[in-house]
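Give me the fold.
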Amino acid sequence: MKTKIENEAITIPVSIMALVDATSSEKMLLALYARDPHARNHQALKVLGVSLSGLKKIKNRLIDKGWWRMTANGHQVSVPGMDPVPADEEGHFVTKSEAIQNEHKVASIARVQSPVEILRDYESCYYEMSKGGNITTIYRLTENALRTLDSVLPEGPTKDAIIADLTVRRDAFQALSYVSLNAPAKEFKKWDQMIGTASPEKLALMCVHIQGAQLAGAKPVHLLAALNKDSKEV
């Protein structure tokens, strides 16, 4: 069964993030294909925000690097540390022990990555995705970078500034993600301007309301009305 994921976030596995020679677009495409082996071109175009010719160039690079190929069963991602996947059409699988061993190796690479490299990799992904990528995916990328850098950066003014900036970005994209999935398309520009000019405190409060509403199963239309009212009162 094919999975519909056009409006869902794409989380990049650590094994793909740790690929040193991969561009941010290549990592995003690999993550999409790893999640949905039957993903169609229009899904990739929406996630990456590139043209069809640009997508073909990315695919060719992945083929040249040996990380992806198209089979009769769909997209096959071949990255060290990934979960067991078919290696050929006869159904040969990577053994569980080999997969676990590779995952440990890749995780070790990721752990020794310096904060500067982590931030540079995030900024590269952020720059490319902000030109037309999926908003929810940008939110997840920012959230992952925030958690990682918060755990590895030494305490001090530099860390405080970086964490504060990423926190504002995360909250803004979380709010935008919720709006993009639940508000009428014609109202998105209004919400974009509202969220873009909100203070860090206001953004944090909006996210608290969003998370609470999602846990409670509240109807999006009611929450959007409340957020709109609150924004006019602040």
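The radius of gyration is 19 Å.
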